[in-house]
């Protein structure tokens, strides 16, 4: 059991002013795996004051020095990959094999790519527009608020570029999976960042999180989480007109065109929905197939879903672990029931957990899903694939764009140009063509209810700057 009794403020591990504690449970076994402080407004006030005090010095620190510190954190994460991945697996149920491959690896890349993007910006120098010099300045104190599904990845996608840009940070990680945030704070301390540049508070979103969002000395809120919480945060941030970047939910469509090789495509399409037990914002949870190909797609999807070995996340052969919590399990089972009740055809899976103890949900595939059904409209965040038949390309685009979300999408075709033409018509922030692996240097973010702003690489870094015009600086 990991007992983290202190929070990190102003370069020191200090006691929270609250004695309350957050308990973290392994969703496979119910075992207590960790404890963290559960603080409130006082902790936030102290952390924001420390970040504010550190801002001017950090913003003036040469980019090369900031980058060197980020590279130390990257190396520290890489060196402790397996240990941190196993910790994340214990706290939120991600299968160890997947966690070791992705959970920490993405964090390493975020630190690396933020540093490289900052190098690029520094090397380019400042822009001149006639007599005006246009300069970038770090936006100030950034509140980073993150969810549990890829805890370290989502933290690093904000913290690394914010620090690279010269901002100071107050991080509030998910109370469901907070432990990797504490390890990151250890690494930041070991790297030797100046006091107050990075601060970690810990506690519930509704109290501590809301105080942070409303704080007048916070200049920007960078949030990843549910669309509901994102809406609330945008409202709470409005009175102080601080910048808000929101990475929210999705209900992404994966369009299989009629020239695609189904036998090759469908197993990967199932993986694009089930990875991390379906708990991914960019999960491709709606599979759109030409009506004539439906029976073959159904057969292959059922076979592929059946091969997702369910088991303990600690077992390296497990592909489908438990969901992150019992409440997440109940929510997903309720969605599966709604699919059955609203007339979708269940091909595999259903409402009976495959393992009795733990937050397990069976690998589930529905067919004949129509756009008005709940399971076609709402983010499920579990291993539930909705197959939706379509008549022609226009119909596929209509179905894909019918969702309120617009975070990701996919297209499969033997003809790349045809796939790209379809991808251009999808109202979403990212489209994965023929199963291309995620490129963390390219921008990621949502249209419509999926959010505001972009993360990753150069675009993600640009979010943390204000732009200033020095009129007459060149004349
Ligand atoms: P959540 O919205 O419940 O919580 C996310 C974080 O926000 C947590 O730290 C929580 O404590 C905090 N929070 C909640 N309400 C708050 C409030 N009113 N004020 C301030 N902070 C508040 O989300 P979750 O259940 O942890 O994560 C799952 C959701 O995250 C899914 O909807 C998923 O799609 C989304 N997500 C989006 C992305 C993306 O990049 N677009 C990535 C991963 C997850």
TrEMBL record:
Keyword Oxidoreductase: yes
Active-site residues, record numbering mapped to chain: 247
Keywords noted in UniProt: Oxidoreductase
Acyltransferase among keywords: no
All residue ranges annotated as the Aldehyde dehydrogenase domain in the record: 13-469
Origin: domain of life: Bacteria
Coiled coil: none
Family: Belongs to the aldehyde dehydrogenase family.
Name of the featured protein: Aldehyde dehydrogenase family protein
């Amino acid at each position: 059991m990991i007992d983290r009794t202190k929070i990190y403020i102003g370069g020191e591990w200090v006691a929270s002013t609250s004695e309350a504690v957050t308990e973290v449970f392994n969703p496979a076994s119910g075992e207590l795996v960790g404890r963290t402080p559960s603080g409130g407004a006082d902790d936030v006030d102290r952390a924001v004051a420390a970040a504010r005090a550190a801002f001017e010095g950090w913003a003036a620190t040469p980019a090369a020095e900031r980058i060197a510190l980020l590279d130390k954190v990257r190396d520290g994460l890489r060196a402790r990959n397996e240990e941190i991945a196993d910790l994340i697996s214990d706290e939120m149920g991600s299968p160890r094999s997947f966690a070791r491959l992705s959970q920490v690896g993405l964090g390493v890349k975020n630190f690396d790519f933020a540093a490289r993007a900052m190098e690029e910006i520094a090397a380019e120098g400042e822009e001149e527009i006639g007599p005006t010099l246009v300069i970038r300045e770090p936006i100030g104190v950034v509140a980073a608020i993150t969810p549990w599904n890829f805890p370290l990845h989502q933290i690093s996608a904000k913290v690394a570029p914010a620090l690279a840009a010269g901002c100071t940070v107050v991080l509030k990680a998910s109370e469901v999976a907070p432990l990797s945030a504490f390890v990151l704070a250890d690494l930041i301390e070991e790297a030797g960042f100046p006091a107050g540049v990075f601060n970690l508070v810990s506690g519930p979103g509704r109290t501590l999180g809301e105080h942070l969002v409303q704080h007048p000395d916070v200049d920007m809120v960078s949030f990843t989480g549910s669309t509901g919480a994102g809406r609330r945060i945008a409202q709470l941030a409005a009175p102080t007109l601080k910048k808000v970047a929101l990475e929210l939910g999705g209900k992404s469509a994966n369009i299989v065109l009629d020239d695609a090789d189904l036998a090759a495509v469908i197993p990967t399409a199932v993986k694009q929905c089930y990875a991390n037990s379906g708990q991914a914002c960019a999960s491709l949870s709606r599979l759109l197939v030409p009506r004539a190909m439906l029976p073959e797609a159904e057969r292959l999807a059922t076979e592929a879903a059946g091969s997702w070995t369910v088991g303990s996340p600690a077992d390296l052969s497990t592909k489908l672990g438990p969901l992150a919590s019992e409440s997440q399990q109940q929510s997903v089972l309720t969605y599966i029931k709604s699919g059955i009740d609203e007339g979708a055809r269940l091909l595999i899976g259903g409402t009976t957990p495959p393992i009795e103890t733990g937050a397990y949900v069976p690998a589930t595939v529905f067919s004949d899903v129509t756009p008005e059904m709940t399971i076609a409209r709402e983010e499920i965040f579990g291993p539930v694939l909705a197959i939706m038949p379509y008549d022609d390309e226009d119909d596929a685009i209509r179905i894909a764009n019918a969702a309120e979300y617009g975070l990701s999408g996919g297209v499969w075709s033997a003809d790349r140009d045809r796939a790209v033409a379809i991808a251009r018509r999808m109202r979403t922030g990212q489209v994965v063509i023929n199963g291309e692996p995620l490129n963390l240097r390219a921008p990621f973010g949502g249209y419509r209810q999926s959010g505001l702003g972009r993360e990753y690489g150069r675009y993600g870094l640009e979010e943390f700057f204000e732009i200033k015009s020095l009129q007459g600086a060149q004349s």
